């Protein structure tokens, strides 16, 4: 055969690495960590094998385990000792995240990112204060969360996290104006150096199922489609993200990751900001479940998944595979 082009030439060992277009480093990854104020020992999260809710006393040792793998950043999620209608334990000075953040930043070099949201702290499980007249007994309300009242709560949460020493805050509630409100609150309080990673395009996804068990944050009624995005929409994601960018978001996140790689790619092309992708609990759980049945090679599919997310254009990835993959890189 007289073939001028033989792409196979560059697939041979020795040259593969030289021509590889994408690389994955432990420092690209953020490991989610669950701190549980109600626990007095570590509790395994059944639907997320290898992950645990740890008591406050173990927050530091849990983060040290992450650091040992080469991953340098953690995302903290909290399970509070009590919940109320407004989620007030989310901004308490002695709240679970505030306390964990103080300990972790005092005793480790981890870069601490905190999730700024209310769903784990409200008794109804929604991401903010409910509109007047709604309570946990309403079966199917058409609207749920009072956007502007919730912004005040989000400001308080972000300030309390920054006061505790958080390196970065990550609002995930999909409230309109949340990035701007948090940016001006942080600046007003002297935390202009604390960056905001916005869950800018967060979809109303069934892939969050295992997380809602892990963090005890499932809505008690209704659903989140009044604030999280419709999986059918891509142009709307660009509009959402543009608003967050205008309001001062430093890092723009897409969530989930694998079913939304087109959105990751669109963001990469449209914006100069660092792009983050959240490889969520369901993406993790399904690979584990298939591997448990012997149908997939877990190590291989985990690595391939993260590589795909980077190839699509993400600079950083939040993933429950962080430690496993980092150890093998
Ligand atoms: C909201 C929040 C959620 C996740 C991260 N932050 C849950 C939700 O919107 O239901 C999901 C993460 C995952 O599934 O891994 N605080």
UniProtKB/TrEMBL annotation:
Pathway: Porphyrin-containing compound metabolism; protoporphyrin-IX biosynthesis; coproporphyrinogen-III from 5-aminolevulinate: step 1/4. Gene3D superfamilies: Aldolase class I. It comes from the Archaea. GO terms for biological process: protoporphyrinogen IX biosynthetic process. It catalyses: 2 5-aminolevulinate = porphobilinogen + 2 H2O + H(+). Its EC number is 4.2.1.24. Signal peptide: none annotated. GO terms for molecular function: porphobilinogen synthase activity; zinc ion binding. Pfam families: ALAD (PF00490). Zn(2+) binds at residues 117, 119, 127. Keywords: Heme biosynthesis, Lyase, Magnesium, Metal-binding, Porphyrin biosynthesis, Zinc. GO terms for cellular component: cytosol. 5-aminolevulinate 1 binds at residues 212, 224. Mg(2+) binds at residue 240. It is an enzyme of class 4 (lyase). Homooctamer. Belongs to the ALAD family. This is Delta-aminolevulinic acid dehydratase. It comes from Natronobacterium texcoconense.
């Amino acid at each position: 055969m007289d073939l001028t082009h033989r792409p196979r030439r560059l697939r041979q060992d020795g040259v593969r690495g030289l021509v590889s277009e994408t690389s994955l480093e432990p420092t690209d990854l953020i490991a989610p960590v669950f701190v549980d104020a109600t626990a007095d020992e570590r509790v395994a999260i059944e639907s997320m094998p290898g992950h645990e809710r740890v008591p406050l006393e173990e927050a530091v040792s849990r983060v040290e385990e992450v650091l040992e793998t080469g991953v340098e950043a953690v995302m903290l999620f909290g399970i509070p000792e009590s919940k109320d209608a407004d989620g007030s334990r989310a901004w308490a000075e002695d709240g679970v995240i505030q306390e964990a953040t103080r300990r972790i930043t005092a005793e480790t070099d981890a870069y601490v990112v905190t999730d700024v949201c209310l769903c784990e702290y409200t008794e109804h499980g929604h991401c903010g204060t409910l509109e007047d007249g709604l309570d946990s007994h309403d079966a199917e309300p058409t609207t749920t969360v009072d956007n502007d009242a919730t912004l005040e709560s989000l400001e308080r949460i972000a300030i309390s996290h920054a006061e505790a020493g958080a390196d970065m805050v990550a609002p995930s509630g999909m409230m309109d104006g949340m990035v701007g409100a948090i940016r001006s609150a942080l600046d007003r309080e002297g935390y202009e150096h604390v960056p905001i990673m916005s869950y800018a395009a967060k979809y109303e996804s069934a892939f969050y199922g295992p997380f809602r068990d892990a963090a005890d944050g499932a809505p008690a009624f209704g659903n989140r489609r009044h604030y999280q995005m419709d999986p059918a929409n891509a142009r709307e994601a660009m509009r959402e993200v543009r608003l967050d960018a205008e309001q001062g978001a430093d890092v723009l996140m897409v969530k989930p990751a694998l079913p939304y790689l087109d959105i990751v790619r669109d963001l990469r092309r449209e914006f100069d900001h660092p792009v983050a992708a959240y490889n969520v609990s369901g993406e993790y759980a399904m690979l584990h479940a298939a591997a448990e049945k012997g149908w997939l090679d877990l190590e291989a599919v985990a690595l391939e998944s993260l590589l795909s997310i980077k190839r699509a254009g993400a600079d950083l990835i939040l993933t429950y595979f962080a430690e496993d993959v980092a150890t093998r890189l």
